Amino acid sequence: MQLVVYIGRAIALRCVQEGMKVVLADIEQQALTQTEAEMKALGATVLTVLTDVSKVTDIETLAQKTLDTFGSVHLLCNNAGVTAVASRTWESPLSDWKWVMGVNLWGVIHGVHVFVPIMLEQDTECHIVNTASMAGLTSIAGTGIYSLTKHGVVNLSEILYRELVQMSAKVKVSVLCPGWVNTQLFDSARNRPSEQKNLSPEAEQTSSNSALEQSFHQAMQAGMSSEVVADYLFQGIKDEKFYILTHPEYKVAVKIRLEDILQEPNPTTINLDTKKV
Length: 277
What we know:
Layout: H1 7-17, E1 22-26, H2 29-41, E2 46-50, H3 56-70, E3 75-78, H4 94-104, H5 106-122, E4 126-131, H6 144-166, E5 171-177, H7 201-204, H8 207-221, H9 226-238, E6 243-245, H10 251-263
Parallel strand pairs: 1-2, 3-4, 4-5, 5-6
Helix pairs in contact: 1-9, 3-5, 4-6
């Protein structure tokens, strides 16, 4: 089976190209096995750990196995992400909120909670990358759950950055905020835990959010490749950039939102095409 290049996988492949030893963490065993084989074929040193980032015990196990194998951690990428069916906030099932927040936001919280103390104790040059999204810098109708988690990741990253600077720590932080990237993010429900699945998911798909879903799928299929995102990321790490934005055209929507906050009008409605309002 041919693997779709997800952002995390593209980052890992770029790590190999940079001569790094790589630890792969994923909830999907087949993806781990295939990626490990591909990377080892390139001569890479790879450790794989089956991980559910929504569970802090899994992250603790990941950290321990990493230290037992390689002795230290120099680059941490909190990248796992999922999304649920696009819908209005009050129509979104609570199971969707719990699942998406558990992975997208709590996954990053767990990564920071477990790995930052390890990196500080090492007292060596390290870098943390938290993957958010342009959805974390804008507010688009129909993306409530996903956007909320990504806003949380951006804010968490900003606070973490300031705290580490205050300590004069050797740990640097970046937040990656891509726009549309051609991945299978909308198929992430295949790895959704059974206890968090919706009882009647087909009943939630109204005509209004079906149209929204279709537009999102089209935008994603036409999106940037994960390899290009990885290029942006590594250049940002080398330049010690905090905000790594891969899609400059989306800054229009960010500017509109910030101007709304500063000037205090009612929020401007922003369409999927962020060049229009």
